[in-house]
Amino acid sequence: MITFDDVKKNPAINVYITRADETLKVLGFTEHSFAHVAKVSTVAAKILKQLGYSEREIELAKIAGYMHDIGNLVNRVDHSQSGAVMAFRILDNMGMDPEDIAAIVSAIGNHDEGVGVPVNAIAAALILADKSDVRRSRVRNNDETTFDIHDRVNYSVITSELIVEKEKGIIRLKLRTDTAYGSVMDYFEIFLERMILCRKAAEKLGLSFKLDINGQQLM
Asked: How far apart are CA 108 and CA 96, in angstroms?
């Protein structure tokens, strides 16, 4: 049985993560390297664990989180689909069970806004983990005077926490932001599609999605 540790130690996967992030750096995107995929992997698994999913589903969520952005190596456009195809080939060659491959590939292929749909619990957890990773340290531009709206919004986020309140049937994204860099309206201007996808993902897990920014509930 292929495990998360097997995937994390796979040299090819790690090369693709590195090179995909280098591509995004050239295009001016925020960090999508090991810090991002490790966090997404951990949070996706934590969501399913807190909701009582099986150990195997938790493991598959970790794997999907780790591999979800490799498609950026091909192109930022449709990177979820190209990443899913890449993941299929890699995991198949590693000898993973087809049922497990199917769950991971469908999650990766559906993780991005615009085309993504939380088709299963793994996909839902991946979406929530990925879209909640907004933080200052992902901004690569060191010149604040040249920040675009994406730089400003990400840089404005001082802390970000995704909290499962199982008893209340809620999953809550709590952000603390410095409005000197980005307003709440700026956040919604660039992340509205993401938040709608998070709401759908939460519903797939039987939860309601709530967004709190600086103590104010906005969704």
From this structure: 16
Query: Which one-letter DSSP state was computed for residue 9?
Result: T
pLDDT tens per residue across span 170-183: 999 999 999 999 99
In whole angstroms, how far apart are CA 125 and each of 10, 105, 197? 23, 14, 11
* Residue 5 scores a pLDDT above 90: yes
**What single letter denotes the amino acid at residue 18?**
T
Mean of the per-residue pLDDT values of the chain: 96
Instruction: Grade residue 219 by pLDDT with cuts at 50, 70 and 90.
Output: confident
pLDDT at 71: 98
Give the count of beta carbons closer than 10 Å to the beta carbon of residue 141.
16
Comparing CA positions, the residue from 125, 216, 134, 213 lying closest to residue 116 is: 125
Q: b/e per residue, 51-77, with b = 16+ CB within 10 A?
A: bebeeebbbbbbbbbbbbbbbbbbebe
Closest CA to 199 of 122, 107, 108, 132: 132
Q: Are 128 and 47 in contact (CB under 8 A)?
A: yes
pLDDT at 114 (0 to 100): 86
Q: How far apart are the first and last CA of the chain?
A: 40
Q: What is the pLDDT of residue 81?
A: 97
The residue count for the chain: 219
Type of residue at 207: L
Give all domains of the chain, ordered by start, each with its CATH number. 4-217 (1.10.3210.10)
